[in-house]
Amino acid sequence: MTASSPTTLAEALAARAARPDATVVAGGTDLLPALRTGRLAEPAAWLALHAVDELSGIVPVRTETSAKRVGFLHRNNRCGKPTRGARLRIGAGTTIATVETEPLIAQHAAALRDAAALIGGPATRTVATVGGNLVNGSPAMELGAPLLALGATVELASRAPGGGAAGGGAAGGGADAAAGTAAAAESPAVVLRRLPLADFLLGPGRVDLRPDELLVAVELDVPPAGSAYARIDGRAAVEVALAGAAAAVELTDDGATVAQARIALCAVAPTCRRAPAAERLLAGRRPTAALLDAVAQEAAAAAAPIGDHRAPADYRRAGVAVAVRRALDAALAAARREPADPDGEAR
Amino acid sequence: MSVTIPPTAVPRRASGARRGRPDGLAKATGAARYTADLSLPGTLHARLLLSGRAHARLRRLDLSAARAAAGVRAAIAQADVPAVRYGMCVRDRTLMVDGVARYEGEVVAALAAVTPEQADAALALIACEWEDLPPVLDPEAALAPGAPLVHPDWASYAIDRDETRSGNDCARVTLERGDVAAGFAAADVVVEQTFATDMSHPLAIEPHAVLADWRDDGLTIWTTTQVPFLARAGVAQTLGLPESAVRVVVTHLGGGFGGKCDFHLEAHAAALSRAAGAPVRLVLSRAEELVVPDLTRHPIRLTIATGLRADGTICARRARLVLDTGAYASHGPTAAEIATLMAVGPYRIDDLAIEARTVYTNRTPAGSTRAPTGPQLCWAVEQHTDALARRIGIDPIAFRRLNLAADGDRGPTGTPWVRPTARDCLERAAELLAGSRASAAAAASASGGAVASGGAVASGGAPAGWLVGEGVAVGVWGNVPLPSGAVVRMHADGSATLVSGAQDNGSGAAVALPGLVAAELGLAPEQVRLIHQDTAVTPFDYGSLGSQTTFNAGRAALLAARALRGRLVELAAAALGCPADAVAIGAGCAWARDAADVPLDAVGRGATGGAPAGEGGGDAGRGAATARPPAPPAVLAASGPPDDRPHVTFAELAAAELAAGRQLVAERSPEPPARPEEPDAARSRGRAMYSSFPFPAWYACAARVAVDPETGRVRVLRVVSCHDVGTVLNRPGVEGQVEGGVVHSLGMALSEGVALEEGRQLTTRLMDYRLQTAPDVPPIDVELLAPRTPGDGPRGARGIGEAGVIAAAGAVANAIADATGAPVHRLPMTPPRVWAAMQAAAGGAVPDEEAA
Fold first, then answer.
1. pTM of the predicted model, to two decimals?
2. CB environment A204-229: b (16+ within 10 A), e (fewer)
3. In chain B, which residues have their Cβ closer than 8 Å to the Cβ of A234?
4. Interface touch B773/A326, C-beta < 8 Å
5. Positions in chain B short of pLDDT 70
6. B687 close to B680: Cβ distance less than 8 angstroms
7. ipTM of the predicted structure?
8. Which residues, listed in sequence order, are joined to residue B321 by a DSSP beta bridge?
9. Any chain B CB within 8 A of the CB of A288?
């Protein structure tokens, strides 16, 4: 049994390349129950990521420079206040508790905050990570639907073939370190692969993560929109969704019509996924109560819930409609409160 | 094994009567050692091989590879232990699988190895060949003629009661009174309903653990048991040993709730220790904890029909109960006895025909969990009571006032109820709940109601759009009079030790006993230590079951303390040269009273100036308490002797006695108070333990809930639980028991329920078996009535270990029905079930109800 605890991303990727069979652990809050119940075999090797500081942090980034951005959180990518076309970048090692309380999330990605607040209990949230929640790939994962509704892409890193020794990046500036993320200069040692979250989630417990890759970050849109997440459950903490829905809506300038809507569901299909038919029903229309009900029903019709000892399928399907309706109501309310988007600040 | 708490650490409050638990500090700081913490040099680690099958014949079992595995020191199966059948009510089981496994958690074999990893590895080397048999899963189907038998040899098993069994029904218990046919004929209205409850678990946080050390000169077992003497008897019986050779010790018990109320795995660990020649420790995992020990809570199916007169009074009741008792009878028959009494409840009903069947199925057995059958029956009967009230058009509380038993009314077996306080508990609970409405309304208007249903909502307030309802439930429970012994010994320095048979399951009842003794002797609580839960040292006691510890062990401790006090008074009188009835004691001293003294506290004096009924006094404690008038107790002072008054210390008296070759010790094993006459009991069949609720304790619960009409999600906003426990000896202890009981009951009401598939439990992790979490728990008000009935326990106290768990589920059920108009007849009332009931009601259906 070997264990490694790298402190930099480069070290982590080297360890990953050296032992692709090692079990990767950050907070371990899904891993330990899986080990205890025998769902996961006792690992031959561990790769612990809790000490890789540069995997943690939430920062706004500018999208115009995405073509040039290959390094990890290059200083030039960062922007001040997020504006139209900006994105939020969340390090995979960021704890759920941070997501729950970070003002940027509350302001620009409320659905994610809503969901983070529901994961486990307070103790779990201080060590569980965004990356862990995603890579575990549970169909009932809390963060999947909000991130899909917010147009998330995942960033996967691996050591470049024949890549140089660990490190090779200049240390970032002090301000970056204070934000919890270290900037690495563009480095030939790291290969990045980006894909939409919808393509990353393949099925129950399956994600598109190659054996030499680590999930390093998630990026999501910061549109002038409102978002929210609603969950159907049975008790107040340490609970798993019976059905869940996230909604992100963007209104036209006069606030009367839905310009764009994204609706995503959790716990009612093999993976978290969008509800495109329901979205199309809403786009470009005035969000009347009757229309919202119809949208919710459309989403429920598209769900594929299982029935089990916790709840029969018809309950979950009805729950989808309720969750979608509630998420839409809250997202619309948030969108109407959103101030008119000014031009971005000078950087 | 008690811990000294420095006086400054004990919370002092204005009410004065509160004090901390003697074991509290050790438990809170982690210093307390539980059974799984214990180790002896050379301790081996045990693992159990479970059948994993609901019903199967064991064709072949081969332990040879396991025995030869690295580190393994012993591996045993049924062939390696005496062929003995045991069981509390029916002797229907063996330590390990004897040919046929009848539930998934039955032990096939046990082994012990040097390390846990070696034990795990060796377990995999045990070779078994099984032939699956058709499992019996549905109790109703099991009762049908020709059904496959769980126990083909049932007729050969010894049973503790008159023959009332057949086939898969191991105990048919009836309760009959009056003429039920005539009663129904005379009824103006009849309502019949059906209810069903799921299996649930007592779920103490501490799993079963045993450390057994077999030596040539005797066997010592440290174990997580609520019943040390019963465990000792079980070990002796199954391993063929004299009880004198077996010592059972409990350190701290991390909760029991009935789940540790029997002889479980002690003999397995002991047999391994004997085979290995080393101490053996067995600790169950959480999944094993839920599947192996045979004390789950009975699933019950209940059909109940009640006849009403036009004026709203109940004239007749008929009920049929089917208890799913699992693979072995365990305490099922006793639970069935209680269930028939709970089907009548605290109501005045002259014509009764109640029948309970105790049915074998191929599942983990059920037994006497905390208030066995109480929560399930109260939930059903109190919903039925509300349905009766609705049917006749009377408010639920007024209906209960009309029908609750009053002083002099006869209980189900003809015994008159003596000053029952169910009505008082009900009025008080309803009053307090109504009083909390104002603050709830304020909280509701302040609450924003988060979108995500798990989000924070102001406590006491309902989320916006939810339906709010209120409900009540009332009940009665018994205090079992059982023998218990206590010894109080004074040492040369005037301190004392109480040696009690009591077992403390974490309720604090036993660890509170030294405080009782100290109060009787006028000593500070720290001056009296407790020795308990060690069968080699203490007198007999049944253990922490049946709410009996305070009631019986308290009686014994009190009488022993009074006997010792009598001796001290005699010695002091001789030393001071005054009559014995002029002696006052306090603060470890004795002195002669002076007529001019300020009146002193008369602690220990009964309400009439003599000893309370049933306790005796002085040296008359042994035998019938009312045989001769008790000696007047010494007057206890609140503090020591007045200044300049000649006095003598206990230390001086004790030292003098010891020097003269005499011990200062008193032992009492008082005869339990006699049960009242039961003129109508003869018509009831199948009973061995409970013909009625002895020495009843009364309670009522009122609850307010909010229900999400779109999802059936229930949030309990407030619970009031009102109890008559006679004298309150230790208020924080009683309140703690009730609060914990209410939370336990809410769990059964809303989220706890075992899902089974082909006889195997699906919910064997705490992630899946859903307990209530801290944010789920509402404000709980505990109200204790001032005592009105003459008590039969120490100083008039009654037990409270169980009553707290019974009524909250029923109150919540009635509150849900009040909120939604759709009663739920399945327990737990999970969101899908509440939702389904609302859907059905909206469609015009009425759940399981026929009104004639």
1. 0.90
2. eeebebeebbbbbbbbbbbbbbbbbb
3. 713, 750-751, 770, 830-831
4. no
5. 1-19, 163, 440, 442-460, 595-635, 788-791, 846-852
6. no
7. 0.88
8. B302, B356
9. no
